[in-house]
Amino acid sequence: MDFMVFQYPMISVQACLDGVLLGILFALIAYGMALQWGVMNIINIAQGDLVILGGYIAYFMYLYGIHPAWGVIVAPVVMYFVGIAIYKLVINKVVDRDLFISILATFGISILFMQLMNFAFGADVVLANSDYGTTMLFNNNVVLPNSKIFSAFISILFAVCLVIYMKKSKLGRAIRATAQNARAAKILGVDTEKVYAATFGINAALCGVAGALISITFTIHPYMGLPYTIRSFMIVIVAGLGNLPGVAMSGMGLGVFEEFADYILGTEFRIGSVFLLLVLILVYRRFKLSRKREYLK
Amino acid sequence: MSISKNNLILYIGILTFGIAAPFLFPAFKVQLSILCVLIVLATTWNIQGGEMGYNSFGNILFYGLGMYLCASVQVGMFFPLAEWTESGGEKTFVHTPTQFFQGMAFGLLVAAFVPAIVAGLIGYSILGLRGHYFAICTLGLGVAAGEISGGIEIIGAGQGFTTPPFPDVGSLDSRGEFFYFLSFFVLVLTFITVRGIYSTRFKLILNAIRDNEDKAEAMGIETMKYKIVGWMISAFFCGLAGGIMGGLVGYIDSTDVAFDGREMGVFMVLMAILGGKGTLWGPIIGATVFHIFKEGFWTFFLGWQYVALGVLIVVIVIYFPEGIMGWLREKYPERFGEVVDEKDRKAQVELK
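Above: the input entities. Below: the structure tokens describing the complete assembly.
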């Protein structure tokens, strides 16, 4: 336990700013999760592994001398097709089955991806260096890497574009209609199979963007996927499906929580505290809901 | 609990085979012990996943807890635990045979009862969750336990915990035989308990919870009580299995051996589904088939095992969700005591 963070206010400011910038990234991943959960009623455990795969795409561009920031454009395109492929091979067989089947099937995909990435890219922790420098704030007391600001900006940009696309385009309308009532949408001539595939592809593309940004700002490693899945799941259950401002807020909240847990408990408990927070949130939610159920009785 | 004549012969046959196995296949003693542990894990997972409909990824929590507890008690009874883990195990302290077996016995007792109590304590909060919330919550519990235990110094933190080595009691084979008979004994104990449960009203209540929990509650069953008791039984045997496995492996690491959600935690789910969940024999058959397949694959395709595991999970879940027992049941419904109306079946075939 280390309470230095409360004695020096500047460290708190640093943790808050870091957390908010990190949280925006989490919110982007969670948005993808909320999308597929709402439309297809699937919880994708492989979400985090898609993120890491997107990160490796940017990392590879960096290795070949291209600036990794271009990964933000390349990764979603590649990941869109990866997503479509996963949908065609596995997900379309589990869409209308019970949720546990989809959880287990995507767990299998997650293990598969983890290991394939381990073979392909090695088990080292890697980072794509963007050379963006840092910004100093408050008399040089708070240090913010520009790459984090860049990543938060790009995340917001993608999220806004997607929201507009969902509102205005034909496919976006079809996706929203399917989310509301798949049967009715089918009757009215929406090709739900195509909508599902596109949804999963868009989700994978979002993961790709987030992954590319993570490879610039933080580090990636083949086995780091599951925490991202859990974070996005947590954000979605706190915010609720289809509540975009809520997703953004709870994402930032989670980011700040993590930074403070990092300072107070130590880095070795960081992931552990995320998972514990998930358990606590679920338990809290259960007691709140059970009170509601008793009212109904 | 009544046993028919055919079943009695079957049980006696299996029991004889189980006792004779280490002498028939002396090279496979460790593998056979692991098989026993796997069967225990699959069978106890089946109490939640199969009979109760609560698909838990978190039984690994009790397994890992049992493993750490058993080893800690075994060491802590005779030597200072912190110094043991500091020095990396056996270098400074040596258990005499009496100390080792006493420690093991007490360790297993603690490893069985503490997880069961933990399950009882957290059960009220966790088992109130439904469906996928329960699945993800238990997944989180397992991973959190692994991450947190990896940061605790007294049980070895990141560098791991060496369990007491088997003492020198004469012959070289005695270690394998000891652990085999220990795990086989736990397996028999588990089987008798589970079979006992499955022939009582308790099983029917669990099935009622699986089929429609709200309706079961409306019928006046205190579902929460039964869910917690079911989970405690699982935790009891998972803890025992973990304690044995810790001694067998000889080394405990927080995320790779004890709270190994990526391997053991998935294995127990997979084995139960492969064999057919919601049946008595399904998990046993599933675990045996899975273990044979796994050992073959692990040996011949070293390095690709996780790829194979991932593909296997996807294939089993998508194409084979009913498992071996489910397939048999569809093929020979008469053997499972189901009466098939030929006319009805034909009519259905025509409809298709």
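Note for the figure: The two ends of chain B are 42 Å apart (CA to CA).
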